[in-house]
Amino acid sequence: MATTADFKNGMCLDIDGNYFFIVEFLHVKPGKGPAFVRTKLKNVKTGRVLDKTWNSGVKVNEVRIERRPYQYLYRDDMGYNFMHTETFEQVALPGESIDGVQFLKEGDICEAMVHAASETILTCEMPTSVVLEITYTEPGIKGDTATNTLKPATLETGAEIRVPLFCNIGDKVRVDTRDGSYVERIKE
């Protein structure tokens, strides 16, 4: 058990049988009345963020979460198959529990959040950016760098993003997995 004084960003709580990560918290001590804590909580399963206010000193159920590296192997009808990089144990995860799944390619290393008591994987996080090759886009024209115009491009994983006009088929680009935006073109 923990109290509201122990809150930290990233801490996992068990509230009515559901797991929530603390995204943000603020201790408030008004001039009149008792102190309280405002939090933003992210549901582990649905990803929905909700606001919750706690009275100061309330006891909460803390869940011990471990971060473990898993390597993506392949996808089949069971889901996305990963291998623990130290024990070589293989697990299958549904696509809903993986953030940025459309940018996942074979061999990528992801961070899995594992419930320490039951050894179940709650979520899997991709690195914040990945390098992928463009497999299809309309041809670019030399000198098209003055404007911020973007065009659609299909990546090697099948995901579609918007890239600047100067990007062509075969170029490698860095993509932000959190929002699916183009970051930069990689020069070889």
TrEMBL record:
The keyword rRNA processing does not apply. Keywords: Cytoplasm, Elongation factor, Protein biosynthesis. It comes from the Bacteria. The keyword Cytoplasm applies. Residues 130-185 form the Elongation factor P C-terminal domain. One of its GO terms (biological process) is peptide biosynthetic process. InterPro entries: Elong-fact-P_C (IPR015365), NA-bd_OB-fold (IPR012340), Rib_uL2_dom2 (IPR014722), Transl_elong_fac_P/YeiP (IPR020599), Transl_elong_KOW-like (IPR013185), Transl_elong_P/YeiP_cen (IPR001059), Transl_elong_P/YeiP_CS (IPR013852), Transl_elongation_fac_P (IPR011768). Signal peptide: none annotated. Pathway: Protein biosynthesis; polypeptide chain elongation. Transmembrane segments: none annotated. Pfam families: EFP, EFP_N, Elong-fact-P_C. Residues 67-122 form the Translation elongation factor P/YeiP central domain. It is found in: Cytoplasm. One of its GO terms (cellular component) is cytosol. GO terms for molecular function: translation elongation factor activity. Involved in peptide bond synthesis. Stimulates efficient translation and peptide-bond synthesis on native or reconstituted 70S ribosomes in vitro. Probably functions indirectly by altering the affinity of the ribosome for aminoacyl-tRNA, thus increasing their reactivity as acceptors for peptidyl transferase. Belongs to the elongation factor P family. This is Elongation factor P. It comes from Duncaniella dubosii. The lineage of its organism: Bacteria, Pseudomonadati, Bacteroidota, Bacteroidia, Bacteroidales. The gene is efp.
